[in-house]
Structure formats: structure tokens, C-alpha cells
């Protein structure tokens, strides 16, 4: 809810109204655009709409056995359907997961890619075939449980002259700031960079009268 170019309250998914004097939005920019019910600031809205995103599919496996002793394995071979094999329980103890192994398979792609529309089971079977190529001893019977997580706006696409597209943390709306992955440039993703920007924006908000 806005009045005089200021947000008076935000509506959560359960229709709860949250009132406040200052607001910080950390969603991807396309999500922010759908949240704002504004009839002005058209140029600003058009500018943030120029930033495009890749989606991500993350297959999470709970296994009876370990794939390897590697925590994070980057996969640069384009013949594989994932760019990372992260065996979380090589970082955190399997005892915290019922003595099973937790593995993440991450893939970045456009949401127009046919794989985006695959059912969870089809995507599982597709990935397991390639996982066995990488780890020949792996068997389907190792899978205790699995889940597929999708994010439509996982990675901003860095284009030429991206610095001219990157929005400021302060928006044209008087009491709204934004901090998103699209603003971390020239770095890519990273929790440490998100923390850095979060602290930076917090300082800006506190200084604002």
C-alpha cells in the first residue's frame, strides 16, 4: 500500500499487512516488479526489467552411500546435465542426517529449456544416468529419498555494459531500498557478497532521515 510515493504497508502471502517506515526488498528484480502496484516510475521499472535471469534446478539426493570424498565438484563438461555435485555430508557430519549422505546436483538454465518442464521423477532419472557416468559404482538403490527445487530467477545474466543496468540500492520510492543478486556485480553469486551488500544497505537506511 502506497501513499505520496511512500510505502505504508506490505502484504505478505497470507494476506497479512506489515506496516513500517522503511522497507528493504531482497527478492529478484522481476519479483519486486510484480509486488509493486505503482502507476509511475515507468522508466525505473523498464530499466530493472532489462536485467534477465537464468533459472536453476537443484536435485537433492539422500543416499545410503557416499559418492566420493569431495565436498564440492564443479562440472565443466557440457555433456552433463549439472554444473555442480555438492556432497554436503563431506562438510557436515552424516550423523546429522540419519547416517545417510546428502548430495546436491545444480543446473542453471533458461526456463524455456525442455528440462524445466520435466516432472520431478523424469528429471531424477535423467540425472541419475549421468551421475553413474561420473561415479560408476553408483546404483539407483542408493537413493533413499529425493527432492527437486526450482528457482525461476536464480542468476542474473551479466551482459555488456552491465554496470549501466545495475540499479542503485535506493529506489525512486522514498522509503524503499533493494538488495539483490543483480546488484552484486562485478562479482557473481555468493553469500559473503550478499552479507557485504546487506550491511551496506543497512547503513544507508540508518542514515536516511
Characterization of the model:
By secondary structure, this protein is an alpha+beta fold. It has five helices and eleven strands. The protein has helices at residues 29-35, 42-49, 120-134, 162-165, 191-207; strands at residues 2-3, 6-7, 9-11, 17-19, 23-25, 53-63, 72-74, 84-87, 101-109, 143-156, 176-178. The strands form four sheets. The protein has a five-stranded antiparallel beta sheet, with helices on one face. Strands 1-2 form a two-stranded antiparallel ribbon. The two termini are 21 Å apart.
Gap between N and C termini: 21 Å
Largest sheet: 5 strands, antiparallel
The side-by-side strand order for the widest beta sheet comes to 7-8-9-6-10
Low-confidence stretches: none
Beta-strand percent range: 25-35%
User: Rough shape?
Assistant: elongated
How are the SSEs ordered, and which strands pair?
Layout: E1 2-3, E2 6-7, E3 9-11, E4 17-19, E5 23-25, H1 29-35, H2 42-49, E6 53-63, E7 72-74, E8 84-87, E9 101-109, H3 120-134, E10 143-156, H4 162-165, E11 176-178, H5 191-207
Parallel strand pairs: 5-11
Antiparallel strand pairs: 1-2, 3-4, 6-9, 6-10, 7-8, 8-9
Task: Give a short synopsis of this structure.
This protein has 209 residues and is α+β, with helices and mostly antiparallel strands. The chain has helices at residues 29-35, 42-49, 120-134, 162-165, 191-207, and strands at residues 2-3, 6-7, 9-11, 17-19, 23-25, 53-63, 72-74, 84-87, 101-109, 143-156, 176-178. The model has no long low-confidence stretch (mean pLDDT 92).
Amino acid at each position: 500500500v502506497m501513499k505520496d510515493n511512500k510505502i505504508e504497508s506490505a502484504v505478505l502471502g497470507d494476506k497479512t499487512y506489515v506496516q513500517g517506515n522503511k522497507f528493504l526488498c531482497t527478492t529478484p528484480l522481476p519479483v519486486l516488479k510484480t509486488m509493486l502496484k505503482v502507476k509511475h516510475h515507468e522508466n525505473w521499472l523498464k530499466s530493472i526489467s532489462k536485467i534477465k535471469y537464468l533459472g536453476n534446478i537443484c536435485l537433492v539426493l539422500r543416499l545410503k552411500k557416499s559418492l566420493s570424498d569431495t565436498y564440492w565438484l564443479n562440472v565443466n563438461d557440457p555433456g552433463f546435465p549439472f554444473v555442480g555435485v555438492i556432497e554436503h555430508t563431506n562438510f557436515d557430519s552424516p550423523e546429522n542426517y540419519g547416517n545417510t549422505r546428502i548430495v546436491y546436483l545444480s543446473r542453471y538454465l533458461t526456463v524455456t529449456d525442455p528440462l524445466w518442464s520435466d516432472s520431478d521423477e523424469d528429471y531424477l532419472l535423467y540425472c541419475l544416468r549421468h551421475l553413474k557416468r561420473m561415479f560408476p559404482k553408483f546404483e539407483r538403490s542408493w537413493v533413499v529419498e529425493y527432492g527437486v527445487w526450482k528457482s525461476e530467477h536464480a542468476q542474473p545474466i551479466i551482459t555488456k555494459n552491465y554496470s549501466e543496468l545495475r540499479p542503485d540500492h535506493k529506489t525512486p520510492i522514498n522509503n524503499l531500498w533493494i538488495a539483490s543478486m543483480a546488484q552484486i556485480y562485478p562479482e557473481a553469486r555468493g553469500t559473503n557478497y550478499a552479507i557485504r551488500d546487506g550491511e551496506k544497505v543497512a547503513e544507508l537506511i540508518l542514515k536516511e532521515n
